[in-house]
């Protein structure tokens, strides 16, 4: 049965859908790329899950490691859903938005991870940034005497807008897949427009995270934040660029089938196959920047840290209330974006308060409202919610 047969009579029917000609032994081109995608996906899942398990078995810093586990399984999720897209083209319109949405969730987790590196106590984070001297990206020129709270709000909004936008475009993609014919010209044009919006949102969020890194790199450097950012950014950039290219070529009718390779082998199969191979490479690359070594309780500097129970660690990772509360905080940030002087007044800080500089005092909070939390103690509810 052709793909279009289960839709209404106006749907375009593609026949054949898959590669029509045997090209090697008993295998068509579609059989070959499905086999390759399956192998690379299995390898990516093994690599990603093994790295995630190392953190779950050495789960001593929940506020950081929960984000790391969420990030390192991105290649496995991408590979799994793209394999099914290669295997069954008629499912691709439903499946491909899922790993893309999770990728954005992981991007937000990367931002929250960086914030935890800078100041782990969410309850006093606004006070910290209100007391952080505002300087340019190079850290050389002082901009004003009103702290960095307004800048913090702006960065937060620019990052979390991608999650809000992706929820909307994900729903739009799934509705489009459910209501309209697969693979026809009009649907392809709509998907290209949605992907254009998603790309713009992702670029804005990435720029915001880079701006934050450039401003606070002295605090983030020892955590290999740049290698984490580059590795994840490169994976996101390749996926976004590749999706745009294939979508544009497909919508303009440049991907025409041959006797050995069908049109959908080009527009869907090859794109998903490339992603399966690429995420396998990134699943290996993630082992260095997201290593568990710094959390190992066997290291002398980690003496006193207590590892969490494996199942408790899993529960902490899948509990996404920290991200959900971050969405609510976005609306609060939009409401509270004020002039620098107003920010100081709202937090009860005099304008002449002694502001801290990243260069002179990198780690302690500017206005410590709560004592540092011991890694050996269970995390407090207020500290884990961003």
UniProtKB/TrEMBL annotation:
Organism classification: Eukaryota, Fungi, Dikarya, Ascomycota, Pezizomycotina
Sequence intervals crossing the membrane: 32-56, 68-89, 101-118, 151-172, 192-210, 230-249, 269-290, 310-331
Pfam families, A to Z: Solute_trans_a
Keywords attached to this entry: Membrane, Transmembrane, Transmembrane helix
Coiled coil region boundaries: none
Organism: Aulographum hederae CBS 113979
Gene Ontology cellular-component annotations: membrane
Annotated protein name in UniProt: DUF300-domain-containing protein
Main subcellular localisation: membrane
Source superkingdom: Eukaryota
Membrane topology term: Multi-pass membrane protein
Presence of keyword Lipid biosynthesis: no
UniProt subcellular location: Membrane
UniProt KW Membrane keyword: yes
InterPro entries: Ostalpha/TMEM184C
């Amino acid at each position: 049965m052709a793909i279009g047969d289960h839709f209404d009579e106006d749907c375009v029917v593609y026949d054949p859908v898959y590669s029509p000609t045997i090209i090697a032994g008993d295998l068509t081109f579609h059989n070959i790329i499905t086999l390759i995608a399956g192998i690379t996906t299995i390898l990516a899942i093994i690599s990603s899950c093994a790295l995630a398990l190392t953190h779950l078995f050495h789960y001593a810093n929940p506020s950081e490691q929960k984000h790391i586990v969420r990030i390192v399984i991105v290649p496995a999720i991408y590979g799994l859903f793209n394999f099914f897209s290669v295997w069954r083209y008629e499912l691709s319109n439903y499946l491909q938005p899922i790993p893309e949405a999770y990728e954005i969730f992981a991007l937000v987790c990367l931002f929250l991870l960086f914030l935890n590196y800078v100041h782990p106590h969410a309850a006093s984070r606004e006070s910290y940034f209100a007391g952080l001297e505002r300087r340019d990206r190079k850290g050389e020129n002082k901009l004003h005497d009103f702290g960095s709270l307004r800048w913090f709000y702006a960065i937060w909004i620019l990052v979390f807008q991608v999650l809000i936008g992706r929820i909307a475009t994900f729903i739009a993609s799934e509705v489009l897949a459910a209501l309209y014919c697969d693979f026809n010209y009009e649907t392809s044009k709509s998907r290209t427009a949605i992907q254009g919006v998603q790309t713009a949102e992702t670029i804005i969020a990435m720029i915001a995270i880079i701006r934050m890194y450039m401003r606070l790199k002295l605090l983030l450097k020892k955590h290999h934040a740049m290698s984490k950012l580059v590795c994840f950014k490169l994976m996101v950039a390749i996926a976004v660029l590749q999706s745009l290219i294939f979508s544009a070529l497909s919508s303009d009718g440049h991907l025409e089938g041959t006797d050995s390779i069908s049109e959908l082998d080009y527009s869907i199969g090859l794109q998903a196959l490339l992603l399966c191979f690429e995420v396998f490479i990134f699943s290996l690359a993630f082992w260095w920047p997201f290593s568990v070594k710094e959390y190992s309780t066997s290291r002398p500097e980690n003496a006193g840290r207590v590892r969490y129970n494996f199942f408790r660690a899993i529960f902490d990772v899948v509990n996404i209330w920290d991200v959900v509360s971050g969405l609510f905080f976005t609306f609060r940030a939009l409401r509270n974006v004020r002039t620098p002087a107003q920010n100081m007044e709202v937090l009860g800080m005099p304008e002449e308060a002694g502001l801290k500089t990243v260069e002179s005092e990198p780690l302690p909070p500017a206005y410590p409202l709560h004592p540092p939390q011991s890694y050996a103690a269970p995390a407090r509810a207020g500290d884990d919610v961003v």
